[in-house]
Amino acid sequence: MTGTFDWTDIEFDLSDVNFVTDREAGERWTGAPRPVCPGRFSDGNDVYVVTQYEAVRSLFADRRVSNHPPEGVHLDSMRRRGVPEELLKYFDSTIMTMVPEDHRRVRSLIDRAFSVRRVKSLRPRIELLADQLPDRMDPESETDLVAEYAHPISTTVICELLGVDDEYRQGSVKFRACVEG
Questions:
Q1: pTM
Q2: What is the helix (H) or strand (E) element at residue 106, kind and residue range?
């Protein structure tokens, strides 16, 4: 990537709740005036926001590019989001923040769990969950669809893909809630 940005002119501020809740944000994101724009991450750090498919593919293929943050930045970000100190060690080396060599090694170990065939095999289970979850909602009260519908489906599917036994799934739900705030 060449050129520099004027970081005072942030085009995408992911730390702004209005951006996250804005219905037109996705259209602005995909229709950005250039493939790479200055932005601000949810923790307030300056980031490059890549907005076009081909640019994203190019970055993923470039071995010089890493998602591994500089030392300490990731943990500081988690602290600002309110993750308890005793849980920080679990976030210090997630697959999303590993150095490229470790990421490739771990990714090769879990690829089978997320193969197209494996994910497709879960379709009946996902459809069943999608049909059953609304029946558990109180029709007389307001429902948070993310908490009561999207999260249970995604958490269940990920646990099933990874082979997490039922007895440990509630811990996964609590862990996710802590991470996401």
A1: 0.46
A2: helix 100-110
